[in-house]
């Protein structure tokens, strides 16, 4: 399946990028000369894409498995190399599930399926980064 986006320069250090869903996003470097920080930074956007990809997988599996989850979030900590081209060489992804009736075994299976099978962004990250995935459960 071919995907097409267009990224247009808006001047200074700011771009607008189309998305196949029809929603545009602003990409911007660190604000300079008093500019307002309106956009997302490219490398941080990659981490958001990783969390979003895996999160959507897990949310879909929670629905299919009819699991009771009050809330969940994904935290990502990443190490950016010092040398150019700077890239993430180590990434830790932590899933946090909240609820009084959590099926920890099935939730772990949902995370594992995303990590090992479904999340294409995760597979891309594996090409250049050491990935660690953690799962945490909390009673509400």
TrEMBL record:
Record Pfam families: OsmC (PF02566)
PANTHER family in the record: PROTEIN YHFA (PTHR34352)
Protein's name according to its UniProt entry: OsmC family protein
Organism: Thalassobellus suaedae
């Amino acid at each position: 399946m071919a995907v097409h986006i267009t990224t247009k320069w808006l001047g200074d250090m700011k771009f607008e990028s189309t998305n196949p869903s029809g929603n545009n996003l602003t990409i911007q470097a660190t604000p300079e000369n008093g500019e307002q920080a309106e956009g997302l930074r490219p490398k941080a956007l990659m981490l958001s894409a990783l969390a979003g990809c895996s999160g959507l997988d897990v949310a879909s599996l929670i629905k299919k498995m009819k699991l009771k989850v009050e809330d969940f979030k994904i935290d990502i900590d990443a190490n950016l190399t010092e040398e150019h081209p700077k890239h993430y060489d180590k990434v830790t992804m932590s899933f946090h599930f909240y609820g009084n009736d959590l099926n920890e075994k099935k939730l772990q299976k949902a995370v594992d399926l995303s990590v090992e099978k479904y999340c294409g962004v995760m597979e891309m990250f594996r090409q250049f980064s050491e990935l660690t995935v953690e799962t945490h459960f909390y009673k509400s």
